[in-house]
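Saturday, quiet lab. Running sequence design on the C-alpha cells for the scaffold JK sent over.
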C-alpha cells in the first residue's frame, strides 16, 4: 500500500500529515475554523480556531482519529478554482481564515487558487502532498503539544491554537527523535540552572537580566580564570572599560548603524547622553590610541570580560540564551600586516586549547567565511584589503590543517573570518568562536603606529571571540555536561557526609583541610538519613561525596564516592587531597 518515504519527500509527508490532523480536528469539532498547516523541522503544525482550549487528552483522541483517516486511505485530489468562487465557497463553509488568505492572493493579482480535497476536507493549498493518506506510516508520527499562535503572527489578531506534531518515515526514526528530545529536555539549561541553583531572574530586576547565584558565580569565575590564563600565555593583557560611552564612539565604529534600535540609551536630568556598549572593540581602540605606538610595540593584545548590552528580542523565558546583558570575553590584537598571520594562528591555538580542555575539539569543523562576491556593497573597506585578508585566512587554514570550508557571503561587515562549529553531547551544532581580520576599524578611529621609515600608518585589528559570551557558553557547558561539570568547574567539588551527629567534628576537620587546599567543599550534617543525603548530593552532581564515620576517624581516612563510579574507595585524607588537587590542576 505505502510507497517508501525517503528524506526527499519527508516534507511532503509532514505537510500531508498536517492535513490529516485538520481532518481529525474537524471530526471532533465540526465548527473548527482552520488556518495554516505547514511542515516544519521534524514535523508539522496546524493552526485552528476552536470553541474550547484543547487539553493533553485531546491529542490522544486526535491521534486515534488520524490513524483511522490514514487507514481509510483517502486520496489527495487536486483542483483549481476561480478565485471569487473559491472565496465565496470558503466563506459559506464558515472558514474565514481561508477566505482571508484567498482575498490576500486576489490582492496580489491571482485569479485562480489551488485546492486540495481529501475525504471531507477541502483545503486551500499549493501542495505538494502524498497521493493518499494511506502513504503515511501509522506508527511514525506523534502529536506533541498545543500552544497559542496569533493569526498571521500578529498580536493584534485573534489567538488561535497551534497543534504541533512530529512525523518520520519510520517508527525507528520517531523513536530516536523522541529519545533525543527527552535527553535535551533533561539537559535543558533552564531546568538544570534551577535544580543546580546557578542563576535566577527577578521581576523587579527585569526580564532578560540574569542574576548569578553563588554557585553560578563560581562557575562563571572559574571559566574566566581559565580562559584568561590560557590567553595570558599567548600574550594577551587584561583591560577594563566602563559600560557607557558617548554615542559618537559607536557612530564612528559603525555599531550605531548596525545595531540601530537594539542600542540602550542612557540619559540623566543633568543632560547626560550615553549609550550602553553593545560591543567592546570601540572602547579598546581608545586604550590603544592613548599613547604613541611604534612598530616595535606591536602586536598589542587586549582582553576583557565585561558586560555589554543589546535590546534584543527575548524569545526565551528564564534562560540565558537571549538576554539583554551579556558578559563577553572579547579580545583584540593590534598588529602590523606582516604579523596578522601569526596573530591568527595564536588565536586558533587558544580556541584549540580551550575547546580541547572541555572535550569538544575532536568534533568540530571550520568555516572560512568570505564575501558575497556578487554584492560587494554589503561590506566596508577596500577590495584589495579583503583580497589580502581572505588569502591570509586560507593560508592559516592550510598551514594548520584546519580544512576550513569556504562559505561565501558569511563574512563580517569589516572583513572575512574563521568560524568554529562544534557538536555537543546531544549532537547539536553550536557556533561560538570566531577570528576576524579588520582593516577598517583602525582607519575609522585614526589609529596609528610609526613604521620603520618613521611614517604614521594604521595597524590591523584582529578580533577574536573564544567563548562568545559567558552566558552562551554556560548554556553549552550545562547542556553538554548535563550539569555534571568536570571537577575544576564544579561549584561544589566535594561534599562531606558524617554518618551521624557524632562524627561532625571529624567532618569539620576534613573540611578545613580541603578548604585550606582551595577545594570547594560543603558538609551535609542534616538529620536526613545517609541514603537520602547521598541521593541529594548526586542530584547536585557533586564530583566527590566523602562519607565519614567511626572507621574513618580511627584510620584518618575518608570513604570516597566518585560521581562516575558505583564503588566506594576508602583512602587517607592526604591521599584524597593529592588526587583531587591534581585533577583540578590538570582540568581533567
Ligand atoms: Zn496542503
Ligand atoms: Zn571586536
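Result came back. Writing it out in full:
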Amino acid at each position: 500500500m505505502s510507497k517508501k518515504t525517503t528524506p526527499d519527500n519527508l516534507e511532503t509527508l509532514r505537510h500531508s500529515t498536517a492535513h490529516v490532523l485538520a481532518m481529525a480536528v474537524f471530526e471532533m469539532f465540526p465548527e473548527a475554523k482552520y488556518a495554516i498547516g505547514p511542515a516544519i523541522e521534524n514535523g508539522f503544525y496546524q493552526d485552528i480556531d476552536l470553541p474550547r482550549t484543547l487539553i493533553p487528552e485531546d491529542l490522544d483522541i486526535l491521534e486515534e482519529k488520524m490513524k483511522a483517516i490514514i487507514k481509510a486511505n483517502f486520496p489527495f485530489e487536486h483542483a483549481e478554482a476561480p478565485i471569487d468562487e473559491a472565496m465565496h465557497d470558503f466563506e459559506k463553509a464558515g472558514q474565514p481564515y481561508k477566505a482571508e488568505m484567498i482575498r490576500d492572493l486576489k490582492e496580489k493579482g491571482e485569479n485562480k487558487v489551488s485546492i486540495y480535497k481529501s475525504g471531507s476536507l477541502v483545503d486551500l493549498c499549493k501542495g505538494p502532498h502524498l497521493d493518499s493518506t494511506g502513504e503515511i506510516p501509522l506508527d511514525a508520527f506523534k502529536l506533541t503539544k498545543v500552544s497559542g499562535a496569533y493569526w498571521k503572527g500578529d498580536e493584534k489578531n485573534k489567538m488561535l491554537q497551534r497543534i504541533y506534531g512530529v512525523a518520520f518515515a519510520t517508527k525507528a526514526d520517531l523513536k530516536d527523535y523522541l529519545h533525543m528530545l527527552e535527553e535535551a529536555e533533561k539537559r535543558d539549561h533552564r531546568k538544570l540552572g534551577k535544580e543546580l541553583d546557578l542563576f535566577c531572574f527577578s521581576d523587579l530586576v527585569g526580564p532578560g537580566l540574569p542574576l548569578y547565584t553563588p554557585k553560578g558565580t563560581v562557575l562563571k569565575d572559574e571559566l574566566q580564570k581559565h580562559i584568561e590564563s590560557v590567553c595570558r600565555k599567548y600574550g594577551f593583557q587584561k583591560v577594563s572599560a566602563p559600560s557607557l560611552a558617548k554615542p559618537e564612539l559607536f557612530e564612528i565604529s559603525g555599531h550605531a548603524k548596525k545595531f540601530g534600535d537594539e542600542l540602550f540609551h542612557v540619559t540623566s536630568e543633568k543632560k547626560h547622553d550615553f549609550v550602553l556598549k553593545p560591543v567592546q572593540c570601540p572602547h579598546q581602540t581608545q586604550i590603544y590610541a592613548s599613547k604613541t605606538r611604534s612598530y616595535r610595540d606591536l602586536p598589542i593584545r587586549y582582553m576583557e570580560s565585561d558586560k555589554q548590552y543589546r535590546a534584543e528580542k527575548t524569545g526565551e523565558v528564564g534562560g540565558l540564551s537571549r538576554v539583554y546583558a551579556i558578559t563577553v570575553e572579547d579580545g583584540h590584537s593590534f598588529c602590523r600586516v606582516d604579523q596578522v598571520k601569526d596573530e591568527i594562528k595564536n588565536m586558533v591555538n587558544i580556541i584549540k586549547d580551550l575547546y580541547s580542555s572541555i572535550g569538544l575539539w575532536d568534533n568540530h569543523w571550520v568555516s572560512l567565511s568570505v564575501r558575497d562576491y556578487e554584492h560587494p556593497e554589503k561590506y566596508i573597506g577596500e577590495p584589495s584589503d579583503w583580497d589580502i585578508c581572505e588569502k591570509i585566512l586560507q593560508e592559516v587554514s592550510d598551514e594548520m590543517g584546519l580544512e576550513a570550508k569556504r562559505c561565501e557571503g558569511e563574512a563580517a561587515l569589516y572583513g572575512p573570518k574563521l568560524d568554529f562549529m562544534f557538536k555537543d553531547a546531544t549532537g547539536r551544532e553550536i557556533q561560538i568562536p570566531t577570528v576576524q581580520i579588520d582593516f577598517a576599524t583602525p582607519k575609522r578611529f585614526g589609529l596609528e603606529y610609526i613604521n620603520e621609515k618613521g611614517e604614521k600608518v594604521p595597524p590591523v585589528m584582529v578580533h577574536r571571540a573564544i567563548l562568545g559570551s559567558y552566558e552562551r557558553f554556560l548554556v553549552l557547558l550545562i547542556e553538554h555536561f548535563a550539569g555534571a561539570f568536570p571537577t575544576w568547574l564544579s561549584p561544589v567539588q566535594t561534599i562531606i557526609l558524617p554518618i551521624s551527629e557524632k562524627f561532625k567534628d571529624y567532618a569539620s576537620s576534613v573540611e578545613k583541610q580541603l578548604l585550606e587546599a582551595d577545594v570547594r567543599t560543603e558538609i551535609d550534617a542534616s538529620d536526613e538519613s545517609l541514603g537520602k543525603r547521598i541521593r541529594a548530593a548526586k542530584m547536585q552532581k557533586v564530583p566527590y561525596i566523602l562519607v565519614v564515620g567511626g572507621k574513618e576517624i580511627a584510620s584518618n581516612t575518608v570513604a570516597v564516592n566518585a560521581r562516575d563510579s558505583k564503588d566506594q574507595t576508602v583512602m587517607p585524607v592526604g591521599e584524597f587531597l593529592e588526587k583531587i588537587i591534581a585533577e583540578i590542576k590538570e582540568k581533567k
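Notes for JK: The longest helix spans residues 214-233. The chain has a mean pLDDT of 91. Ask whether to fix the surface positions before the next round.
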